[in-house]
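Just wondering, does anyone understand what follows?

——
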Amino acid sequence: MYKYQNTINRVEKFTGIGLHSGKKVTVRIAPAPADTGIIFIREDLNNFQIEATVSNVVDTTLCTTLGRDGILIKTVEHFLSAVAAAGIDNLFVFVSGEEMPIMDGSSAPFLYILKEAGICSLNKKKKYLKIKKLIKVSCEDKSAVLEPANDFIISFYLDYNHQLINKQFFSINFSKESYLEHISKARTFGFLHEVEMLRANNLALGGTLENAVVIDKDKVLNKEGLRYKDEFVRHKILDALGDLYLIGYPIIGHYRGIKAGHALNNRLCKKLLQHKECWELIELDDTLLEKFNPFEQLQLAFC
């Protein structure tokens, strides 16, 4: 499953609401040939294509937005996180508006849809980006790092001045631990006192307790509570994976985020691609596949 590039078996269609636009959107995912990458296609604008690449990131305010020639596709990170975890390299994503649907605020619904579509192996070797030298970006007390490792690991530390979050740390080695179990169900989150400000700026117009964890001064407003006791930091890892996949290849290395967000993740990806001495592209033979098998549990669940 990992030696060759993957796409999906068949077309799947789903609908939802954009978190920031509040508008209903329909998405249709379709198989794509080898070496296509992930391409978003605005069906409402004469099938205008936007490749899911670092160079096409045009905004990182509260979400990751791709764009080209003034045409946008917003909030792509949760979907791309699921696509990365499913090992999908090539995909056409037809969208009826300018924002991907938020679903329940996590990547779990997208994983279900991808499972229904099925995974199809293509007759072209898959390339991995192996980190050779540490590379780092920072801003004040925030930072994002990629460093050499034999597996794919994401570690994240966050620190909010709020009694329900405070300091949280989580680290996951995707070659040994389950994305489906530990990360995919973690939802996006926000603070109640920020809602009016966001909506005044035409953001979070579609946000509800059905698609986000909303935090008040001393409690979580969602009746069901949290899915994980540290759901907040796990969602940051979910976001980071989606942002990193815009590099265009799965990574062999260790990402470490300290209070980082979409902006720093994008800066890190751009800096990495500019510094070619820090990485190399490799293919995995059978021996390497035995040692490096990211998202193995998820792939087994897809079979």
User: Anything to note?
Assistant: The chain has eight helices and 19 strands.
